Amino acid sequence: MIFTVAIDGPAASGKGTIAKALARELGFRHLDTGSLYRAVALRSLEGEDPVAAARSLDPERLGDPRLREPRVAQEASRIAAIPEVRAALLDFQKGFARRDGGAVLDGRDIGTVVCPEAEAKLFVTATAEARAGRRHAEQVAAGLDSTLEGTLAEVRARDARDAGRDVAPLRPAEDAVLIDTSGLSIEQAVSAALAVVRSRIGR
Ligand SMILES: Nc1ncnc2c1ncn2[C@@H]1O[C@H](COP(=O)(O)OP(=O)(O)OP(=O)(O)O)[C@@H](O)[C@H]1O
Ligand SMILES: Nc1ccn([C@@H]2O[C@H](COP(=O)(O)O)[C@@H](O)[C@H]2O)c(=O)n1
């Protein structure tokens, strides 16, 4: 059996939280595809050519805590606009998705480019203000220097780059189900997503 759940959405919309919860609940494997771009970005910030970094990336080594830093997130959205970087990361993502069993992948182009054949597609969104508030709280809890205004500006800059690039821009697939988490708790958002996926599994 192959069953792929494709989850896309802008920064801090809650797609990673939903993806992890779905994978846990359904016994599916999970890939946070943003971590691939962040790993390339970290190496780019250290002076490496991003295309060479993407071509030699070890996807099993994505645990570096520096990947979560805001400067890495911004650099990720810059190197993610390079077509050769995206091409170098594509086969691994497709292979992860279509191995036997169930898989949940979250990112920006999963339903449109990586897994256009996914059995269930979700587009998770929220207002920029709600997303910035969540990311700011997360950064404060992690002991990082963060202001709400600065985080909102970063979220907006990343949205503009991710949605405005020529290659694989952030957008909902035509057949994606939209979940706006602005007014939802984590539990409500996860159960809305689970209901969509279960309805597809049952078909
Ligand atoms: N429905 C929700 N209500 C309140 N907080 C939420 C909700 N969903 C997620 N969060 C919190 O918001 C933050 C961002 O969530 P998450 O990491 O899942 O977003 P994301 O879309 O995967 O972000 P990114 O693409 O930047 O990695 C986390 O701290 C998470 O706990
Ligand atoms: N499928 C994807 C996933 C991510 N990106 C880019 O990486 C940046 C970081 O992603 P996070 O999900 O960890 O926030 C993101 O802003 C995108 O530019 C991508 O292009 N495609």
Automatic annotation (TrEMBL):
Keywords: ATP-binding, Cytoplasm, Kinase, Nucleotide-binding, Transferase
Recorded superkingdom: Bacteria
InterPro entries, per database record: Cytidylate_kin, Cytidylate_kinase_dom, P-loop_NTPase
Gene Ontology terms for molecular function: ATP binding; CMP kinase activity; dCMP kinase activity
Residues annotated for ATP binding in this entry: G9, P10, A11, A12, S13, G14, K15, G16, T17
GO cellular component, one term: cytoplasm
Domain Cytidylate kinase residues, every copy: 5-198
Known catalytic reactions: dCMP + ATP = dCDP + ADP; CMP + ATP = CDP + ADP
Localisation per UniProt entry: Cytoplasm
Biological process per Gene Ontology, one example term: pyrimidine nucleotide metabolic process
EC number in record: 2.7.4.25
Any Pfam family the entry gives: Cytidylate_kin
Family (UniProt): Belongs to the cytidylate kinase family. Type 1 subfamily.
Name of the protein described by the UniProt record: Cytidylate kinase
Biological classification of the source: Bacteria, Pseudomonadati, Pseudomonadota, Alphaproteobacteria, Rhodobacterales
